[in-house]
Specification:
heterodimer, A: 141 residues, alpha+beta, Tetrahydropterin Synthase, Chain A, 5-stranded mixed β-sheet, 4 helices, B: 135 residues, 5 strands, 30% helix, elongated
Chain lengths: 141, 135
């Protein structure tokens, strides 16, 4: 088993607020993450890829292609943005780290086969570090 | 129970496959294919799995683990140009994947038949890239 993990960074702001709840309910549920003008994090995204070792390159995944995919699908859209306003999915979806992970997974999965066709590299896990204390992981996608 | 010991070594390498042209290598590996090489501060994490010995309370003697890592990996690889000085990287491209597998192969004989078995080798090439390998 060989698994490659690549780390990326983006900085973004967000506000946790759901239109389904009252102002008081939002405050109770999300605490200071509900403050009206949002706040930001230095997010760290880890992408883990498994699969067979390519006999010629000696790699599980071509890092140039992986970087290009993650940059195009995630970093370019998320970096230095206010997620609630600037990223389409979060017009509806509350940008909790759980939901950010789901959106990242959907975006990567939608383009994975076109970048890595056949039985090559598999997206095995993605992890999002919101702060040093909060880590979220989505496995075996 | 899992125990993990960390070690570090610094080495240089070139990622280029001799069967490919310089342009193809450049496309595949980017600047890692630059012909005169470049270096990294590699960080190695060796994970063993086993039940603690009822008398010592240890899964494995960490002094002994440190000595095994030092003898089989750090001494041969630290401050070396992998392609020229460390077999099999005269023939095998020293990608992080291949290096992790080679480190596993060098470590694994020391744990055959013991209480603890080699569970995982994690090799960081940089803080932004690591490989987990288990045979």
């Amino acid at each position: 088993m060989t698994r490659v993990t690549r780390r990326y960074k983006f900085v973004a702001s967000h506000r946790l607020h759901s239109s389904r709840f009252s102002a008081d309910e939002n405050r109770d549920l999300y605490g200071k993450c509900n403050n009206p003008h949002g706040h930001g994090h230095d997010y760290i995204l880890e992408v883990s890829v498994g699969g067979p070792l390519d006999a010629i390159s000696g790699q599980v995944v071509n890092l140039i292609s992986l970087d290009r995919l993650v940059d195009a699908q995630v970093i370019n859209d998320f970096d230095y943005k206010y997620l609630n306003a600037d990223v389409g999915e979060f017009q509806e979806l509350v940008p909790t780290s759980e939901n950010i992970l789901r959106v990242i997974e959907e975006r990567l999965a939608a383009h994975w086969q076109s970048v890595f066709p056949g039985n090559g590299p598999r997206l095995e896990a993605i992890r999002l570090r919101e702060t040093k204390r909060n880590v979220f992981e989505l496995r075996a996608i | 129970m899992l125990i993990t010991r960390r070690a570090e070594f610094s080495a240089s390498h070139v990622c280029a496959q001799p069967s490919l042209t310089p342009e193809q290598n450049r496309e595949l590996y980017g600047p890692a294919a630059n012909p005169n090489g470049h270096g990294h501060n590699y960080v190695l994490e060796v994970t063993l799995k086993g039940d603690p010995d009822p008398v010592t309370g240890m899964v494995f003697d960490l002094k002994q683990l440190k000595e095994i890592i030092q003898r089989t990996v750090i001494e041969p690889m630290d401050h070396r140009f992998l392609n020229y000085e460390v077999a099999p990287f005269d023939k095998v491209v020293p990608t992080t994947e291949n290096l992790a597998a080679e480190i596993w192969n060098r470590l694994s004989p020391s744990f055959e038949g013991g209480r603890a078995r080699l569970e995982n080798v994690r090799l960081y090439e940089t803080e932004d890239l690591y490989v987990d390998y288990a045979a």
